Amino acid sequence: MKRVVLLGPPGAGKGTQATGIAEKFNILHISTGDIFRANVKQGTPLGLKAKEYMDKGALVPDELTCDLVEDRIMQDDCKNGYLLDGFPRTVFQAEHFDKFLASKGQQLDDVIDIEVPDSVLIPRAAGRRVCKQCGKPYHVEFNPTKVEGVCDACGGEVYQRADDAEETVRNRLKVYAEQTAPLTGYYKNSGILKAVNGDQTMDKVFADICKALGE
Ligand code: AP5
Ligand code: MG
Ligand code: ZN
Description:
The chain is an alpha/beta fold. It contains 9 helices and 8 strands. It is 47% helix and 16% strand. The strands form 2 sheets. It has a 5-stranded parallel sheet. Strand 5 and strand 6 form a beta hairpin. The chain is globular and about 45 Å long. The site of BIS(adenosine)-5'-pentaphosphate has 35 residues, from helix 1, helix 2, helix 3, strand 6 and helix 9.
C-alpha cells in the first residue's frame, strides 16, 4: 500500500517511469495529462475546456483538476494505492489534496522529484512520440518503437503531442518554474520529498526511484 506523487518538469521522465513503478509496487498509475488528453480525443465537455489551456502549455484550472483526481482516487481500483503523475502541480492543488486526504484519514507516503536540467528537457520533448491508445511515451532517438509509428505495448498509433512544439515546451517549462517548482519546498517541509537524478539512463533512474521508495 503506497500513495506516491511523481514530481518533475515536462520531459523529466514521469510517464516513462510510471508504468514500471506502478507495476512493481502494485499500485495504479494516474496521469492527469493522459486523462485530459483522452477527454480531448473524445470531445467531452472536460476535454473541450482542458484543451484551451493545454494547447498553450498553461495549466488547467485548479478546482477542475482537484475534483477530477479526488474523485478518481476514491474508486475501488485505488484501494491498494496509486502513483500520481502530473498532479499536484500548484501549491493550491497540493494543499487542497492534503486536506481532502486528511478528511478521509489518509496521507501521502512519498513524493519523488525527478530532477533534470532544462537543456536536456528541450530535446527530449522535441523527439518525443506518444501512443494514441495507451499513452506510453517513446523518443525517436533515446527510446524508439521497435516498428516505426507503432506502440510496442499495445500496437496503437504513435504520434507527436501538440504541446511538444518548441514554443509550447518553453512555455510549459516557464509555467513549471513559476507554479510547480515551489512544491518541492512544500513537500520538503512535510519530510516526504526524495530527489532523484533524472539525467541518467532510464534503467538507472528506475533503480534510483525504487530505492527512494524503499525497495
Ligand atoms: P502532462 O501530460 O503531465 O505533461 P508534462 O508535465 O508537461 O510532462 P510530460 O508528460 O511532458 O513529461 P514526462 O515527465 O511524463 O516525460 P516523459 O516520460 O514523457 O500535462 C500536459 C498538460 O495537461 C499540462 O501542460 C496542463 O495543461 C495539463 N495538466 C496536466 N496535469 C495538470 C494539473 N495537475 N493541473 C493543471 N493542468 C494539468 O519523457 C519525455 C521524453 O524523454 C520521452 O520522449 C522519453 O522517451 C524521453 N526520456 C525519458 N526519460 C529519459 C532518459 N532517462 N533518458 C533519455 N530520454 C528519456
Ligand atoms: Mg507525461
Ligand atoms: Zn500503446
